[in-house]
Design a protein that fits this description.
By secondary structure, the chain is an alpha+beta fold. Helix content is about 45%, strand content about 15%. It folds into three domains: about 70 residues, no CATH class; about 90 residues, Tyrosine recombinase, N-terminal domain (DNA polymerase, domain 1), CATH 1.10.150; about 180 residues, hpI Integrase, Chain A, CATH 1.10.443. The radius of gyration is 29 Å and the shape is elongated.
Amino acid sequence: MGTHGKINTTPYYNGARVVGSGKTWHTQDGHQVPVKMLRWAARCRFRDNDGRTRPVEAWGGTRTDAEQRLQTELTTRKRTSSDTITADTRLEVLADYWLRTKVDPSGRAVGTRQTYRYITEQYVAPGLGGLRLRECTVSRLEAWVAAEAAKHPANARIALTCLKGMLDTAVREDAISVNPARSVTPVPATLSKDVRALDVAGVVELRATLADDAKAVARDLPDLVDVMLATGCRIGEALALRWSEVDLDEHIVYLTGTVVREKGVGLFRQDTTKGKKPRGYLVPKFAMAMLERRAAEVPPGPLGLVFPSAVQGLREGSTVEKQWRKFREQHPKWTWITPHTFRKSVGTAVERGADIAAAAKQLGHASSAITAKYYVATPDVGPDQREILEQFGA
């Protein structure tokens, strides 16, 4: 079910079939017909959800147009038939069903939904889509995941997550009794690179360089960096900051959302952060002075953004990252710095000044293990314990 046979295309003129090729076509009685006067029919047979095979056709001004219209019609009928999942359903059909009915309507973050769709469509469907569900054995899935992990471990790890999700759906639809993906060996996490963060002296020097760069100032880069250094927020969260979330009297900034782009929707403010919970921060004096200045100088605009675009709308993170790359081109010393480096610098500074639990809370992490692994730089020189250790030499 949900499959079609060979597609055939036929040219017509005034409802009658014509013969010929290339640019030469004529009716059955020999009357020549201009190519632009032809209408093409594309036809095939399709097995519907009830198991019956029926003819399907579509018309267009050219052979290609007719075939494309037929493919669109087949896709629609395939999706309709795919709403019944059986052991003979192909994995690519289940994948489409899972994305449409389980992922897209879910409360997952936009970025997560986009990632699941990308990995499913670009990796899972091309690699395993032809298998029927009864053919999705542990050994087959294990071999495919292992092969993908050897090439793209991060993508393979997400692909296995997607397989678990879609095959869980198949279990709930009674198409299969157990989920074979849950017995596949997990893809080990790749070893992370050493965390690199700015120390205090580096931050002071970089802020001075930013302040002296006219183009960086015009693009609000110094002010954006100050907000990230004062809170540890992500670039999208800084760009989503509104004046209604800045308490100038109490010196508090509340992070309640982020800026995202969704296919088919465009750029918008997502009213939740990556951690799902709003976070409030007591802001140090240097950032508070900047916010007070911006409150007096920057028009609030219809969205009330602290960092609006030139037309008072939302700014996109990728645009700021592009502007940051141009700044680095002019200042080669900072080529290793990205907007995310400031979040790592905050985590490192708080961990060294307080402890790892405080750093995790500052960055909004549920677990301090994530903070320690990805956001705190390891000091090159250990703490000075020479007085304690000197007694060994007595």
